Amino acid sequence: MEVTIGIVEGASKEEKYQALVKSIDSVISGESDFIANLANIASMLKYELGFFWVGFYLVKEGELVLGPFQGPIACTRIKKGKGVCGESWESGKSIVVPDVDAFAGHIACNSASRSEIVIPLRRDNEVIGVLDVDSDQVDDFDAVDQRYLEEIVRLIS
Fold first, then answer.
1. Counting C-beta atoms within 10 Å of the first and last residue's C-beta, which end of the chain has fewer, N or C?
2. What torsion do the CA atoms of 83, 86, 90, 91 make, to the nearest 10 degrees?
3. Tell me, what's the pLDDT at 90?
4. Do 15 and 23 meet the contact criterion of CB atoms below 8 Å apart?
C-alpha cells in the first residue's frame, strides 16, 4: 500500500502535522495489528518531519521495553520514574524537555539527542507505553508538537 502524505514544501509545522495526522489515520484505520501501526507511525514521523529518533516503549512486566522505532540504536528497558520516558509513564503526562542535559536523571541512549518530547499511550485509562521523539537540536519541541503528537497517540489508543 502506497501512502501519499501531502506535505507541501514550505508548509508550516502545523500544516505538516495536519497532513500527517490525516495520513496516519488513513494508514492505521485499515490495520488491526497494534505493533504494525506503531511501526508505521514511527516511520511516518521520522521521515516526514525529520526527527532524529522516533519510537515507542511499551509497558511489559513492570518496565518500559523498546518497541517499534526509527533512528539509531536505543535503550532497551527503562524503569518506571527513570528518565523522561519513565517519568511520563509514572505521571501519565506528556513531557517536553528543551535541553536533555538540563533534565535531572536523563537517560542518554544517544549523545546526539539534545531535546525530547514524550507522550503517554493509554488504553482503558491505563498507561500502556510512551511515544518518545528526540531531536538533535536544543529546544526543538513546542506546544504545536505536543498537541499533534498527543492527537496521533489518541488515534492508536
1. N
2. 60
3. 97
4. no
Residue 22: the pLDDT is: 94
Query: Using CA atoms, how far apart are residues 95 and 134, in angstroms rounded to an integer?
Result: 12
**Angle, to 10 degrees, between the axis of helix 34-49 and the axis of helix 13-29?**
160
8 Å CB contact between 131 and 118 = yes
Q: How many residues does the chain have?
A: 157
Per-run averaged pLDDT (10 residues), the chain, 157 residues: 67 94 94 97 95 97 97 95 96 96 82 93 96 97 98 94
Q: For the purposes of burial, counting CB atoms within 10 Å of the CB of 75, is it exposed (0-12), middle (13-18) or buried (19 or more)?
A: middle
What is the four-CA torsion angle of 145, 14, 157, 127, rounded to 10 degrees? 10
57 three-state secondary structure:
strand
Q: For residues 151 and 125, is the Cβ–Cβ distance under 8 A?
A: no
In the CATH hierarchy, which fold is given to the domain comprising 13-156? Beta-Lactamase (3.30.450)
